[in-house]
Amino acid sequence: MRLLSYLLRSSPYIAVLAMLTAFISGIGNASLITLIHTALNTDEISSQSAWKFMVLVCFALTTAIISQILLSYLYRKAVFDWQLQLSREILKAPLRELEEIGSADLLTALVKDVTSVGSSLLPILPLCTNVVIVLVCFSYLFWLSWQLFVAMAVCMLIGALSYKLVLFKGHEILKLAREESKQLIEYFRLLTGGLKELKLHSHRRQAFLDKNLEPTAASIQRRFFKWSVMHSLTQTWAKFLLFFVMGLIIFIFPKYIKFDAEILTGYILTLLYVRAMLFSIMGAMPTLTKANVAFEKIEALGLKLIPETSQQSKLPDAIESWQSVELVNVTHTYYREKEDSTFTLGPIDLKFTSGEIVFLVGGNGSGKTTLAKLITGLYLPETGNLYIDGKKVVDNSREHYRQLFAVVFADFQLFEDLLGLENPHLDIHAQEYLTKLQLNHKVQIQDGKLSTTALSRGQRQRLALLTAYLEDRPFYIFDEWASNQDPMFTKIFYTQFLPELKARGKTILVITHDDKYFDWCDRIIKLDHGQITTKLKPVAL
Ligand SMILES: Nc1ncnc2c1ncn2[C@@H]1O[C@H](COP(=O)(O)OP(=O)(O)OP(=O)(O)O)[C@@H](O)[C@H]1O
Fold it and tell me: Taking every annotated instance into account, which residue ranges of this chain make up the domain ABC transporter (predicted)?
């Protein structure tokens, strides 16, 4: 029911119209069978009845076509809307939560689950029509003989209960298959991302196929097969149930309930007609079950398909002037479920002032990147607070606070389109930076779009730097930016780029292992196992 309300809320007017036409079409269809039965039992068929029949056929046909067109529109629009809405929700959710969910689950939700939920729309409207037809036909049967109807209904109810039981079991199987589909997507991601490693090592490749990919794919296939068998069994059972009921009506019930031949033909004719509708109602159940599983999964991720309030909140402006950013008693803890261990960063007390260059050093895994995520407001501190110019950063101001930073993370992502950079001279500025970064012979820029990002890792890092330059934010953070640069460019970075940025009044935090250039900063902060062990001037190090 909750799924249905979501489906209807995505385009309420169209949905109501589509349902209305589906209902009307259902009434038209059901009226046809009563008209046929009456005509069969009339000696002389009047021309008025023939006209009535023709009009009813046209009416049922037109409403069915309209409802189908509306349905296709509704389906396409719903999937489109939900994919956009889920993307917004993902961008809105806290980074740490998203990291814990993992990209495989998010991708499955965006690509597979949304389509599954949307596909439930396809049988829903025909379902409405068929439910109406079945209800009208059953009312007709009740009107013909209520005693016969009650006897028939009891038999059908027993059949429906057994069907429901199997459907419930199927729901559990589909849930497990959904979890494994997520794992399969993760393996596909490894396959496409690890082509070099898999091609070079034949034993690893074989083991990857035999031990990872194949068992998961086979298990999903087994579960879906089990589900299909259960589905086919219930469908076949449902078909024979109706024949069984007809057999009871023809051979058994007449011994106990009195009714004439006209009622009997009415029952058989109507049941034969209703049979197709009942099958289609039952046929829709697996799709609805699949949609329900996908819907539950999206909800379990904490993502909403329908926006709760208007999406058009004003985007925060960039911060132009500031004096200090301060972290007071800030901590962050990772919990690693598989190893049942934790890593805690902090408590951290740090202050950055406008226009200084700070180097952040420390061994692998000491918490440097985590600290950068806390400073930029990407991670929410578990304890303690961030302050900008003495003002606490709270939930309402966090988005605004984040506009202070331009960051090149070690696992940066390049966008070919230089998005969100409102600058009438963007191409000219970008071209200047491309020359400065010695990329002008490799990459061109036109209408804010880079001609390519298919470059070496070091060159891609330079492109990431280009984006950061163009963002022109007051606070720059570089996470081991120079690690893939040649010695000459590393030198240019520390001895030219950083001082130039500082001269423009920027604050720069550089996560680095390049001790050769430690003299080129104002301060050095050292992290060890999540704790700040040293805050020094470079000369003293
Ligand atoms: N997403 C995560 N989930 C769980 N633990 C994590 C996660 N990211 C990092 N950690 C753990 O937190 C610790 C600090 O990681 P972090 O990436 O901040 O260190 P780092 O100093 O930047 O390391 P490196 O120099 O290798 O980049 C590490 O022990 C790491 O295992």
Answer: 325-541
